[in-house]
Structure formats: structure tokens, C-alpha cells
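Researcher: Let's run the pair from yesterday's discussion. Sequence first, then C-alpha cells, for each.
Model: Starting with the first of the pair.
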Amino acid sequence: MANVSFSDIIDQRSDEALFNLLTVERGLYKKEAIAYAEIVFQKRGLELKTLQQSSKRTTDDLATEVKNRLKYGESVAQIIQHFNARGLELSKEILVKTNEKIRIENNIDLSRKLIVFIPATVIFVIACITHLISQSIYRIGMGIFFSILSMAMLRIIYRLLKRKTPQHRLETTQIEK
């Protein structure tokens, strides 16, 4: 099978498919692919407003686009600017709901990761107390287990702290205004 690059795939897309890539599907692709798609979009002489008017987007499509873009790492200001360039008014309600959905999904993901460690620890401790495993195996296992656990916990703590950055607070206040 031939090795096909993203530039070949993007070049072959129709105008509508390219518009979808730059809007609804934006968060699903690498930044390099999106940047190349924007260049192709400009080379074709396409305008966001005209394609936006011809496409029939629903509120759910816009919410999906906002969610993908926020997960992609775009700031709220960039998203609002892009929507304005397309002649759309991005409602505060969509931003707040989408931001809340992303926050809830991240919290669920973090809690799933934490829940995995609790039963494993309990089983390991019970096995040691009941002498089902030898003391040396227990020490080696606990050393490995807690080193992995500590790395996972540090990663989770980092992700939690990362959410409370000044940039996040600024964007949250921009949404609420």
C-alpha cells in the first residue's frame, strides 16, 4: 500500500469537505494538517462566509465544533474570532455548556484512572497479610506498584493544576461576560 500524506488527501477534498475539515472536524486532525488545509482553502479563493451560508449547520453541529476546537487547544477568543469571520454569532450558552461538558468528561476520565488503583492495592495488601505471597515478592511488587502509582498520581495532579492556570481563568471569565 502506498504511503499517502495528509497533503495529498487534503488536496483531493471537495470545497465542502475542506470547509468541514476547517470547522466541525477541526479538533480531530493534527495542527499541521489544519494549517495546510487553511492554505489550500485560501489558494482556492474560498470564503468562509459564503460556504457557511450554503451549508446547513445546526446548533448541535456548532456545539460539536466548539467542543473539538476547545479540545484541540484553541482559545475562546480564537474560536469567537473564527465564528465572526464566518458571519456567525456564537452564543454564550453554547460556550458555557460545551466547556462544562469537556470539564465533566475530563473529571470522569481522571476518576476512572484513580479507581483502577484502589482495588489493585487492596488485593495486593490482602495477599501479603494472608501470606499468599512471600515477603520479598511483596516488597518488589509494592515498589514497582507504588512507583507506577506515584507517576500516575503526579500526572493527574498536574492535569488538575493545569486547569487552574490564569489563561483558563481569563477564558472562563470571558465566557461568563
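Model: Moving on to the second of the pair.
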Amino acid sequence: MKNILNNQIVTKLGFILLLFVLLQIPVSMVSNLISERSLRLQEVREEIARSSHGAQRIIGPFISVNYTKMVNHEGKFYSTEYRKYILPESFKMNADLESYA
């Protein structure tokens, strides 16, 4: 009787070990898929950073003044709306550029 119980325990442990080994295959496949996708995410971020780096111009603070000019032309009044931008004569700025790539 004792020999039969030991034989069943060894069989069960062997079966559990076999299942464990077989289940490692899908786990490694999922792990590989996760690492591939994280690598692809990094590549896409770098590609976006490269594609959006065209010429950039930083302008300082400015004042926008809206005004209306009335003109009398042959007895009729016409109004025209204008916008004037006033910039400083000099501008000094310290900035840090951070890229998310």
C-alpha cells in the first residue's frame, strides 16, 4: 500500500512539473510580445520627435491693440478694424528644451 501511495505522489509531482514546463512557453511568448511593444513605443516616440522638429521661432511677449478707423468717403462713413502688435525693443530669455523622446 505504501508503495502505491509513493508511486501516485511521484506521478502527480511529475505531471505538475510537466504542466509547469509547458506553461512556461506561453508566458515567454507574452513576455516577448510585451518587450517588442515597448521597443516599438520608444521607436514611435523618437520618430514623432524627429518629424516635428522643423524651424522654430520663439517670440517674446507682445501687446495686441485692436482699433477701428472711420473714413468719410463721399458722405458715407466706412469703418475698418485693425490690429497692431507692439513688441519690446530688446528681449532676453533663458529657456530649457526638454524632449520626450
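Researcher: Give me one sentence on the second I can quote.
Model: Helices lie at 2-51.
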